[in-house]
Amino acid sequence: MRITFCCSQTNAGPWLSGFRAEIPGVDISEWAAGAPEADYAVVWAPPQQFLDEQPGLRGIFNIGAGVDALLQLKLPPAAKVVRLDDAGMSVQMAEFVCHAVIRHFREFDGYEQDVALGKWSYRKPRLRTDFPVGVMGLGVLGERVARSVAQFDFPVNGWSRSGKSIDGVRVFCGASQLHGFLAATRVLVCLLPLTPDTRDIMDHEMLSLLRPGGYVINVARGAHLVDSDLIALLDSGHLAGATLDVFRTEPLPAEHPFWRHPKITVTPHTSARTLREESIAQIAGKILALQRGEPVAGVVDLARGY
Ligand code: NAP
Ligand code: GLV
After folding, report:
1. pLDDT the model gives residue 63
2. SS in 3 state form for 21-60?
3. Per the residue annotation, which of 199, 269, 276, 292 is the catalytic one?
4. pTM of the model
5. Which atom of ligand 2 is closest in space to residue 63's alpha carbon?
6. Which of 9, 146, 267, 275 is deepest in the core (most CB within 10 A)?
7. Would you give the DSSP letter of residue 161?
8. What is the mean pLDDT of residues 209-217?
9. DSSP character for 101?
């Protein structure tokens, strides 16, 4: 069995030795043009040439949760595409989103500014019932986030395509219930996959439906959000602020207005990082399961796009 590794912006060495330790005797190497064909690939944003040269792949393992970049390419016909299935990401995402929600709700950003000016000032406590949080996408990450935010006694709404039952979360489903979800939400968290249905979903019309004083936390993909519409709604006062971890172009270009907007907090696509050891163990386990002819979790539905 041969594995090829083709992950942009990733130091291959520790990954290759990790796989060799998990699958003794495996033939694994970093891909270079003209390399021999492999049975399985471990990838992040590979070039089309890589896939064109590997028509016999049986499994393509993405070292992230989101497969949007991969699905834009022409894939080998028989290959299953397999995403990372949590692998330590959901707890990171829950930490990040809870931090952003609480920072906004408790006005820690305002306290930081006051302290920088040497100012000792109290702000009036706010009611968490006035800050219902809505999580779009209730998959591996979104469900964990919704449950975690609910632990802090915020009212929590969730929205997904098919709906599901989650303790402490009021769940809306499908396009017909999006309006009701938004009208019931003040702090909006995006954890949708990027697909043709969800691209540009956070536009002026949609964000206008959030409660006045709304707040946007985008931790999914930059192309879910129409940048100029967010800025217009922040400047009009309908929205109070945003925490943005993902952007249409990454790194966020130096001239982009998000960097300097006083109501926007920028982080560099770091809300849930791929953890190497967990990921290697998970992918190796799935490769061995496929070799035995067993089913594996995290296989992407190519028609649905996630
Ligand atoms: P997932 O398990 O595939 O779940 C996706 C959820 O979105 C599901 O609940 C699905 O509904 C819902 N959904 C999909 N299309 C929809 C639509 N058109 N309308 C309504 N709901 C829809 O995804 P995940 O693992 O939670 O990850 C979500 C995304 O987070 C990834 O795709 C990736 O882009 C992003 N991400 C970002 C970072 C970061 O560091 N910023 C890290 C990891 C992942 P159903 O349940 O009904 O199918
Ligand atoms: C990161 O953005 C991922 O999709 O895992």
Report:
1. 98
2. HHCCCCEEEECCCCCCCCCEEEEECCCHHHHHCCCCCCEE
3. 269
4. 0.98
5. 5
6. 146
7. S
8. 98
9. H
